[in-house]
Amino acid sequence: MEPTPEHNQCAKTKAVLLGNRVVVFDREAANSLYFKGGFYGRFFTVPKPKTPDVKKELELSLFDAVYLAEQGCLDIYSASGEALRVDELKRLAMDAYENFEDAYAVYRDLRSRGYVVKSGMKFGSTFAVYKLGPGIDHAPFLVHVLDYHSKLDPLEIIRAGRLSHSVKKKFILAYRDPVDGTIRYFVFKWLM
Predict the structure, then answer these.
(1) Is residue 3 part of a domain?
(2) Residue 65 lies in domain
(3) Each residue's pLDDT expressed in tens, for the chain with a length of 192 residues
(4) What is the pTM of this model?
(5) Which of 38, 92, 88, 95 has its CA nearest to residue 68?
(6) Helices (H), 129-189
(7) How far is CA 147 from each of CA 49, 68, 116, 142, 177, rounded to the nearest angstrom?
(8) CATH code, domain with 177
(9) Do 138 and 184 have their domain in common?
(10) Residues acting as catalytic residues
């Protein structure tokens, strides 16, 4: 992976936590977060926007919301209007996602390197990672985050490698080093 550091500036945006969803209702702010801010979230009823004139509400993943809140770009409120702290949002994310802390550390590392990070669920991985963004390029990487202490089944690597090869993406395993917190990446490439 080659880093492409592009740090976008963001304007402070308000979002509302609805269950496990974080929604930006201000359509101008939503458009800015998606097209100017780094392809955060996804628009309601517009799965793959082709032009930057989309004016819809934006649903942010909990990964996106925590990251944007940590960057000072997002203020999050409950449905009743109470402000939520970042640590409260992280606790909710840890309840919703297994291994959130490690996955978020990888998410944050990739974002800090200028990559666009989206859910990789449809590929059976933690993240699909873009150099430029959805609609501009295809995600060249599938990143699967593991807990450092988890066991790795060779058959799972083969399955993931075959899938990633069939969709023309590099398969990457990532974990957070328990000693120093460094994110480590292992790239797998299918050879014929």
Answers:
(1) no
(2) 8-97
(3) 554 444 456 789 999 999 888 999 999 999 999 998 899 999 998 877 878 889 999 999 999 999 999 999 999 999 999 999 999 999 999 999 989 999 999 999 999 999 999 998 888 889 999 998 888 888 889 999 998 888 877 777 777 766 776 677 888 999 999 999 999 999 876 666
(4) 0.89
(5) 38
(6) 154-166
(7) 34, 24, 22, 17, 9
(8) 3.40.1350.10
(9) yes
(10) 130, 138, 169
